[in-house]
Write a structure and sequence with these properties.
Length: 576
């Protein structure tokens, strides 16, 4: 990368866990596609030059990568150099990857430092023993096979072309790569437990290095004013402490009131390590047939967001694009989203936190066969990595690890995934397999793309009387009193231009007919006493799928946002 070249996606990728000393490695890298997957045999990792170039963090299928190759790519190689500052030499150096799809191996100065499987979760390695002051060489190899049925691939097409609701693939690095300088003793991670009732926050964390004679100190502030502090002597590699808060500011939809937080390791009055973070004071409960936030029933007016971009595919071109996606949804009266078949990057979650936007965190299970225990092997580890990375985001109000598994489902696999999720996170509700046969779930959710409003109402009518739609009894394990979430509906087809595209059912003939159908379907959910949440499909078009409320550019609304907002923001029956 030349000195004049602007670094793409230059912002810190983890505002929820940030240190001052870090280095963004995005930009121009050496690049080669390895169609025969022979590079390992040829010892390509020993090479310090590759035949082509790519712009990281954009995948080679994307226009922003400067390659735009959309056929299948079985393997890729990356190479770049970086300069290690003199001040980092006496400390430890961590190499971070936001995400790389799917099977990644990394070498630093010819030394292999690690291997990671999973196309969506973040990963890192301590590379201190392999780096030197001044020039260093980094080599990355990634294999990808969306047709194997052994790797989760979400909405990536398993055919040459995109079709229906499957789109252009993503291979290799697709999130920021960065270096972080940490002291010899440092904070490795933490989980935040806000307590609305007692107005405090609990912290559980882990330490790397020697903790003897050291303390952990946590300071909390709100809009620049210090509102809490706690100090505790360290003992071993873990710590727990509670921070009382002198002011109560709750996080809620539309109001992302965030406390800033500083976590320090202190040795005899000297700050050894310092991490900057934040948290939201909020509590989620499932009570009878409703989901409560901060002891109040909140109807979730959600929209499906698939996280695709015409020029970046899986990667937003800029941070502003992430913020904009949330803003256009809120401008239409939605208070959150299902982040569908993709683990979204932490920076999106940061803006959801800050803007008061509720989201469901999902796992991109499509492409993975879970009809046996083999499926667990290829999903549980990555799912646990996602839970650990994203646990602290107040915007995440629930988890869903599988979606529409249909007949490709081993109930024992589903049950174990549910139990592991609940064991790791006791604070949020969990949906096991959205829109299909539930095994263990906290929420009873259904997908229904009926386009006829009267048929849709008839299907939902039993919920008004504490019943359950008859046709769902066999494939859904329902318990009386469970919250009912229509987690996919609508998908009304409306193409802009000559291309008819793909969508659900017959497209309305006019814009007025579209609004009438949208209004009828949405009101059938809002005005039903047994429904606590809906999720409309979808926020924007994706390639050939034209059932978005915006076009694929994410900038052009197909309908007046104020009309959609007026429909969405009507008072729900459970809010009466």
């Amino acid at each position: 990368m030349t000195l004049k070249e602007k670094v793409p996606r230059p912002e810190h990728p983890r505002p929820d866990f940030k240190r001052e000393q870090w280095m963004n490695l995005n930009g121009t890298w050496g690049f080669e596609m390895d169609f025969s997957k022979s590079g390992m045999d040829r010892k390509q990792y020993e090479s310090k030059s590759l035949s082509g170039q790519i712009t990281v963090p954009f995948c080679p299928e994307s226009p922003l990568s400067r390659i735009g190759y959309t056929d299948f790519i079985p393997a890729v190689w990356y190479q770049r150099e970086f300069v290690l500052p003199e001040a980092w030499v006496e400390k430890r150096v961590i190499l971070h990857f936001g995400a790389a799809d799917y099977d990644t191996q990394v070498w630093v100065n010819g030394h292999k430092v690690g291997k990671h499987k999973g196309g969506y979760s973040s990963f890192s390695w301590d590379i201190t023993d392999y780096v030197q002051e001044g020039d260093n060489d980094l080599m990355v190899y990634v294999e990808d096979d969306t047709r194997s049925q052994t790797q989760p691939s979400g909405k990536q097409s398993a055919y040459y072309e995109s079709f229906s609701c499957f789109y252009t693939r993503t291979t290799g690095i697709w999130q920021t790569v960065w270096l972080e300088c940490v002291p010899l003793t440092y904070i490795k991670g933490m989980k935040v437990y806000p307590n609305v009732h007692d107005v405090c926050v609990g912290i559980k964390g882990t330490i790397c290095g020697m903790s003897k004679d050291k303390e952990i100190r946590v300071k909390a502030s709100y809009e620049g004013k210090e509102v809490g502090e706690a100090v505790k002597r360290l003992s071993g590699s873990t710590f727990t402490l509670d921070v009382p808060l002198s002011e109560k500011h709750v996080w809620e939809p539309g109001h992302g009131r965030l406390y800033d937080m500083t976590i320090q390791i202190v040795n005899h009055g000297e700050v050894v390590d310092e991490v900057f973070s934040y948290f939201g004071l909020r509590q989620i409960d499932v009570i009878k047939n409703q989901i409560h936030l901060n002891h109040q029933s909140v109807f979730q007016r959600l929209v499906l967001d698939q996280g695709f971009y015409a020029d970046g595919i899986y990667t937003a071109p800029t941070e502003d694009h992430l913020k904009q996606d949330i803003q256009i949804a809120m401008d239409m009266g939605f208070n959150g989203a299902r982040l569908h078949e993709k683990i979204f990057e932490p920076l999106f979650l940061y803006w959801a936190d800050r803007m008061g936007y509720m989201v469901w965190g999902e796992y991109p299970n499509w492409g993975l066969d879970i009809s046996s225990g083999e499926g667990l092997k290829h999903s549980l580890g990555e799912w646990m990595e996602a839970l650990e990375r994203d646990f602290n985001h107040p915007s995440i109000i629930g988890w869903c690890f599988y979606n529409e598994t249909e007949n490709n489902q081993d109930d024992d696999v589903v049950a174990l995934m549910y139990k592991m999720t609940k064991q790791y996170d006791t604070t949020r509700p969990v949906i096991d397999t959205s829109g299909w046969h539930h095994v263990m779930t906290d929420i009873y959710d259904v997908h229904d793309y009926t386009q006829d409003v009267e048929i849709f109402k008839t299907f939902l009518e039993p919920l008004n009387h504490d019943g359950i739609p008859e046709e769902n009894r066999e494939k859904q394990q329902y318990k009386p009193g469970m919250p009912f979430f229509m987690s996919e509906y609508g998908g009304i087809k409306w193409a802009v231009g000559e291309d008819n595209g793909w969508g659900y059912g017959d497209a309305p003939k006019t814009k007025d007919a579209f609004i009438e159908r949208y209004k009828g379907l949405t009101e059938a959910l809002l005005f039903n006493k047994g429904v606590c949440a809906f999720c409309y499909t979808q926020l924007y078009d994706v390639e050939q799928e034209v059932n978005g409320l915006y076009t694929y550019a994410h900038r052009q609304p197909k309908f007046d946002p104020e009309i959609i907002k007026e429909i969405n923001q009507q008072k729900a029956a459970i809010e009466a």
